[in-house]
TrEMBL record:
InterPro entries: DUF1643 (IPR012441). This is DUF1643 domain-containing protein. It comes from the Bacteria. The lineage of its organism: Bacteria, Bacillati, Bacillota, Bacilli, Bacillales. It holds the Pfam family DUF1643. It comes from Siminovitchia terrae (Bacillus terrae).
Length: 98
């Protein structure tokens, strides 16, 4: 299993990430993040997404879904808004189609 993030810039909370972007002009995606994502999924048997409700920051979830448009995606569960749920908020570990 290989784990990659939506954003190259990591933070302990989405609130802190947004603050850094707003006040410190941090670029959260980075120049190479998409290349790392594509490389990570290239030989994967299954691709799981799990960004929760905060993946929409700067429409990053849409950008990544566009990169992965021809790949079957799985998640543990979906939020009430249809987003792939972040694993720390769920109890089961069975993958479902996204």
């Amino acid at each position: 299993m290989e784990l990659v993030n939506l954003f190259a810039f990591r933070s302990e909370s989405i609130k802190k990430l947004k603050e850094r972007v707003r006040y410190e002009n941090v670029e959260p995606v980075g120049d190479l993040n998409n290349q790392y994502l594509i490389k990570a999924i290239k030989d994967a048997d299954k691709v799981m997404v799990a960004w929760g409700s905060n993946g929409g920051f700067q429409r990053r979830d849409k950008a990544v879904l566009s990169l992965l448009k021809d790949i079957p995606l799985f998640c543990f569960n979906k939020t009430s808004m249809g987003k792939p749920e972040y694993p720390k908020r769920i109890k089961g570990v069975e993958l479902i189609e996204f």
